[in-house]
Structures are given as C-alpha cells and as structure tokens.
Amino acid sequence: MSQDPYELLGVKRDATQKDIQSAFRKLAKKLHPDLNPGDRHAEERFKEISTAYEILSDEEKRGRFDRGEIDMTGAERAQRSYYRDYASASGADNPYHNSSGFADFGDVSDSFANFFSRRSGSGRMRSHGQDRRFSLEVDFLEAVNGSRTGVKLPGGPQLDVQIPPGTRDGQTLRLRGKGEPGIGGGPPGDALIEIRVSPHRFFTRDGDDIRLELPISLEEAVLGGKVRAPTPSGPVNLTLPPHSNTGKVLRLKGKGAAKRGGGHGDVYVTLKIVLPDNPDERLTLLVKEWATANPYDPRKNMET
C-alpha cells in the first residue's frame, strides 16, 4: 500500500477538493465490493482509496499530512505515548465507519450515491472492518520474560493482552476481531498493538542476547571467585577467573531472551573494575610499592 494519499487517488498535491472528490468517485465506482464480489484485491484497494479520501477531503487532516504531522492512516508521527490510539477516527468522527455503510456519499447528488445507499441498506454489501492501531509501552523484563496485562483501548473495550516471552521493541501484536466493525454484517477488523519496550537501567537487548556491564572489586579482579550477577530471570553465581581485567566478557548460556524457534539467547557480562569510593592510604602505598617492583605499560600496543 502506498503511503501517499495523493498517489492512491492519482491527483496532484495542489489538487482542489473538486478534483479529489471526482478522482475518488471514479475509483470507487470501479472498485466498490458490490461490483466486485469475491475480489479481495478490489476490496483492499477500495479500503485504501477510502482512507486516502478521508485524509484529503478534510482540510485540517490534509494540512497535517502535508506538514508531516500525521501519516497515511491519520496516525501521529510524533513520539507515541502510553496506550495512545493512532488509528483513524471511529464512530461519528469517521465518515467511513457509520452504520449506513456508504450513505456518506450522500453529499454527491447523483445516481452513484443513491446506488450505494440502496445496496448498503439492503444488506447485500459485506465488507471487512478496518484495523485499528494502538501503541503499548511495556517494561523491559516483561517483554523478555512475557506477561499478561489488561489494556483499556481508547473508544473500545477492556482487552486482555498476552505479551509473549522475547517480545521486541517495535513488534506488533494482532488481536483478531477487536478492530472496527464490518460493513453490512462483514467481519470486524483487528486491533494492531505496537509494543514499545522501555529501557532497563543495566540490561540492554542485542537480538535474543542480553548484555550487562558488571562492576567488580579490585580483590575480585585479582583473586577471582564467585560473584552474584543479575539476569532477566533472576541472579546467578558467576565464576570470575583470577586476574580478570576490565572489558573481559563472560557468557551465561541460555539466560537471555526467548527465541521464536525455541530456546533462549545468552547473557554476556562485561567486567568493570571499580575502586572504593573513599581513598585508602594503605592501598595507595601497596600499589606504589608493587608498581616500583613490577613496572609495566598497559598501553604499549597503542603507540602509532
């Protein structure tokens, strides 16, 4: 589907309202589902030109589209907010979702408008309802581990939404039959919920893997041993090899996000040596003595 309503209707960007209405009527006469029974392609094209006409026939919406404030569906292009409805208007606010089917052609005083009014009223025209789009913000760990939440969609019912384990940022969940009602007894559309995963304070997502920077003490770095490391499914014991440097990466197999084909990704732990907050004179003297007896240059390979 083209994202430009001007292209869908075949009009120039400076077209008048009369040009837009004429182009829409011409295409609608050709693509109307009543005239193309069983032709899914024609039905989808009819929905597309109807969406385009809804944008361009409304001066305010047309202006907002031209300025880049909304997209082809009427959705805001700005940052999406929690549970916000980005679908085209429904009910009385949308001329293509009224109970009279295509009686919205009533402002066109010709036999074409009368034809659609009679056909819709007779109940012989059936059309699939339009989908509705929403945005839902989900906690990082809820997306990785999966969760279930109740969502009150704007202008709709309370829905029970299952967040599958391993859900990614930007992924769209489809709730079948929760969109706009069908026309003439046709099936309803779906609710499409785009997931926006909120950042975590120390986990980051890398495909199905999780990355983590783990602070360790000087003692742990030099001597090694067991340390507690967080993972999305809970803390685990991580074995540090002696003389572990900052930047060393350790792998916790199978502790990452769920994969679509089964199994889990891994957690990659990057070590970071952290000195005490308060200076310690004994540590300072010890390091000076050690450095005098054991000089070395950690940047010797960086000379150009």
SSE blueprint:
Elements: H1 5-9, H2 17-31, H3 40-56, H4 59-66, H5 111-122, E1 132-138, H6 140-145, E2 147-152, E3 158-163, E4 172-175, E5 191-197, E6 203-206, E7 209-216, H7 218-223, E8 225-229, E9 236-240, E10 249-252, E11 267-273, H8 281-293
Parallel strand pairs: 1-5, 7-11
Antiparallel strand pairs: 2-3, 4-5, 6-7, 8-9, 10-11
Helix pairs in contact: 2-3
InterPro entries: DnaJ_C (IPR002939), DnaJ_domain (IPR001623), DnaJ_domain_CS (IPR018253), HSP40/DnaJ_pept-bd (IPR008971), J_dom_sf (IPR036869)
GO molecular function: unfolded protein binding
Protein name: Molecular chaperone DnaJ
Describe the structure.
Helix content is 27%, strand content 21%. α2 packs antiparallel against α3. Among the domains are: 79-96 and 128-198, Sandwich (HSP40/DNAj peptide-binding domain); 203-302, HSP40/DNAj peptide-binding domain, CATH 2.60.260. The chain is elongated. It is of the alpha+beta class. The strands form 4 sheets. The chain has a 4-stranded mixed sheet with strand order 6-7-11-10. The chain starts with a helix and ends in an 11-residue tail after the last helix. It holds the Pfam family DnaJ. This is Molecular chaperone DnaJ. Residues 4-69 form the J domain. GO terms for molecular function: unfolded protein binding.
